[in-house]
Amino acid sequence: MTNTYVPDRAMFIFAHPDDIEFSVAGTAAKWARHGCENTYVVITDGNAGSHEPNMTRGQIGHIRREEQAAAAKVAGATHCIFLGYDDGSLEPSLELRKDLVKLIRQHKPNAVVCGDPNMFFRGERLNHPDHRAAARATLDSVFPTCEMRLLYPEFEAEGITPHKVNFVYVSTDQELNHYEDVSESLETKLLALKEHKSQIGDNDYSDRLRERAATVGKQVGLAYAEAFRRFTITPLPQPEEEKSA
Ligand SMILES: [Zn+2]
User: Fold this and answer.
1) pLDDT digit string, tens, across residues 104-159
2) How far is CA 26 from the centre of its chain?
3) What CATH code is carried by the domain that includes residue 83?
4) Distance 161 CA to ligand 1 centre (A)
5) What is the extent of the structural domain holding 71?
6) What stretches of 18-177 show up as alpha helix (H) in DSSP?
7) Mean pLDDT, the chain, as a whole number?
8) Other C-beta atoms lying within 10 Å of the C-beta of residue 139
9) Residue 48 Cα, ligand 1 centroid: separation in angstroms?
10) Number of compact structural domains in the chain
11) Residue 4 placed within a domain
12) Cα-to-centroid distance, 18 and ligand 1 (Å)
């Protein structure tokens, strides 16, 4: 299914700086352009992401935060939040779940976008374990924890109240049921990815990402698309067509 629904507020929760740009930044950029307030939540600093012999974890983590913040800006995100977990050892812990529940309750997104906790392989490639951990922690935070008043009642003292998310968009290649037309925003996604200079070096991933978006788009008659398995957690109070951009 494709449609033109644009959330008022969306939260993108991923493990590393650059995960959003490699996967769902076309959707993020399009929604931002149509007035959605996007919050990026990047759980780790990507502080294992260097092969340079003299680079420290502190240095690469700092560089990658700056790159991610710049990439978020390119795609029009309103907030870019770092949780500061260590790269390479992420677990879907209760500590992480609590951090995510707090952010979701604070920002009250209609849509949460994350990865697939079951994805061990993507095409010919092995998936990073942090990606699965981030996805699982996100789903476990959205439902049911986030909306349960008796879970983390201590947040209420800070004025942070339970929240029901409307939709979860899982970025995956399995059991797809939703496609976002990114024809108008693909080039913005590619520009955002270029901000991750420490990761892409001299590589230009533009052709590869364009080709992937074209392959996905072809499945539903679009020039370029990003695919999701979308879940409705709480239906919108009015048909989403009425809220479309
Ligand atoms: Zn990653």
Assistant:
1) 999 999 999 999 999 999 888 999 999 999 999 999 999 999 999 999 999 999 99
2) 11
3) 3.40.50.10320
4) 31
5) 9-243
6) 19-23, 25-33, 57-74, 94-107, 129-142
7) 94
8) 21
9) 11
10) 1
11) no
12) 7
